[in-house]
Amino acid sequence: MVSFLNPIFLLGILGASIPIIIHLINKKKAVSYKFAAIDFLLETNKRISIKFKIRQLILLILRACLLMFLALSLAKPFITNSGGGAEEKNIPTSSVIIIDDSFSMQYSDRQESFFSSAKMAAKRIIDALKKEDEAAVITCSSPTFLVLPELEDDKKHLLNFVDQTQPGFTPTHIAPALDAAVEILSTARTAVKRIFLLTDMTRSGWDPQWFKSGHEKLRRTVSRVHILDVSEAKPLKNIALTDVEPQLTPMEKNTEVHIKVTIANFSPAPVKDLPVHVFLNGKKSTQGFFHIETNTSETKEFFLTAEKGKDHYGWVEIPGDNLSVDNKRYFTINASQTINVLLIDGDPKTNIYESETFYLEKALNPGREHLSSINSSLCSIHEINTITFADFNIVFLCNVETLPQEKIQELEKFVQEGGAVIFTLGNKIDPEYYNNALGALLPHRLHTTRTFSSASPLSGEQPLHLKVTESVHPVLRILSEAQINMLSLAKFYRVFYVDPTPLGNCKTICSFSNDTPALIERQVGRGKSVLFTASIDRDWTDFPVKSFFLPVMQQLCRYVTGSMSEEIPKEILVKHAWQYPCPYDMNVIEITNPEGTKTIIPPQFVDNEKYFVYKETQAPGIYAVTVNETLHPQFPAYFPVNVDATESNLAKIDQNEIRACMGGTQLSITTSRLEKESHVLLGEATKTLWGQLLLLTFCILFIESFISRK
């Protein structure tokens, strides 16, 4: 079927009559003059006259065709081949229009972005629907759709929805969008069901795994899938910030920050002298230059100095290009206050390696080359009366036999007001004394010790080892998967058993292999009490010499003091949830997004733990956390949200791959550019003809010029 974009220019075909009229007007009958001398030329003149008439006739045809083809070219004809057949033109149809609103659709190599082109195409598809047709519009912004729209015939409502749609900051999710479209069309009563997908065809958005089963649903439910490539099948180039990773090195007064910046060059040409600027707290701090080969990435380190004891925010930025969304990446620095810890050694030894607190002290502050934000102070039981617990955040009682009564009362008050006490046991512990004197703080009553032997591999008295509970406690979440699997390597030859009935609001952080509690926490007033049912030195276990001992002890200190900023991921991706442990006495917090909108967040339970969960991470940027409109020491002041860098790779999926994924589904793919006056074709395969007609017009003009000069 041949159609025209500008049919008014077909009137120009009438201009083909102009050469004919001119030819007829100029055609005169020759006057004959008979004389004898000319007779011998008559035969030659007849041959010349025939050639002249043929030449004139050819020029007449060429000139008529010249005007006719020029008119046809200006009318812009094209051939349409409707894949749906005549039935789609004669009966009502149901359509779902999918608009790709991922951040790659903000790419622009001209005045308007791909997303603007997609919206324009969606509007023209809606305008072209007949009165009895129905349609729905959805986007690819989320992998899950909570509420699916219904098919409707109200064009005004559909157009308003398209107008209100804005490009997002998430990757493309083609498969869930197709899933949703199939579900919507499954309720349609019409025989012809179509899906229109308006996208830039970037490969990252297509999930081949889904099509292994999904193509059957498409084939059974959908009459035809029409894909419009708004990028016109052009190769796209992009330079993107793909990763920004801050690393902290605490110093005496400040914190040295190492910013590892990775930039990828997704383009066919190398990049030289690309300027990179690093900002801290809104001010440019440093800069550098990158040289990146084609289709590769490069990582460099930048060094900053941040004030210790404060939280900071920043970002890394590169110059704008066709896709500016991924040219800026945010980070935060949680340079938390120093945690002051008191270690009371109940069993000091002349050989310091045998002292109760030797390994614990080294774990909390390993040394100058690995400075920690945890500052430990050591004292013996004989020095206890000179110590004020309120000067510390945590008190460790390490195999302490007894405490003066006034210090016990001071310790209880210290914990009630927000401090933390951690009990570690040993051979000097009398269960009866601890239960009576420290029962107000202990998570469980102590029962008795149990010794395990490793003399025989067949013995039932094999050493115990650690294991995590069903839900991983925040203290252990800092461990990698490999480290969690290595917990079983720690051997325990003697442990304390406790009564099964807790003395308060208690939770088991981790257990032994025989399911007896190993590390237990209890909420006491505003503070916490923790009981470790073994020794913290090597008398009963080899736990202190394992690689995971250091991170567990440090994270335990951060947890009981509410300084868990290290547990927060270095960045959160757009539309991913931010969550943070809820302190005992906290009811709400406020989150302020980059646009300045504040949201009040109450706590909720996640895996039986109270957390603050914030899900409104719709845009990249810095989000601020406050309590009663002020910063709170138990929360990071900021957290960063960034785009998913997988979408920055704009490599395209091949049309043949899509056809293979679709299986037997009827499919058409359009890649032509949408001009302002263009016709949006409802899934019809098109072939434009005006280019060929213009070329033919120029050829005719050239031939006519050549013949007319002869």
From TrEMBL:
Signal peptide: none annotated. The chain crosses the membrane at residues 6-25, 57-75, 689-707. It comes from the Bacteria. Pfam families: BatA (PF07584), VWA_2 (PF13519). The keyword Transmembrane applies. Keywords: Membrane, Transmembrane, Transmembrane helix. Gene3D superfamilies: 3.40.50.880, von Willebrand factor, type A domain. Residues 92-259 form the VWFA domain. PANTHER family: BLL2463 PROTEIN. NCBIfam families: two_anch. This is VWFA domain-containing protein.
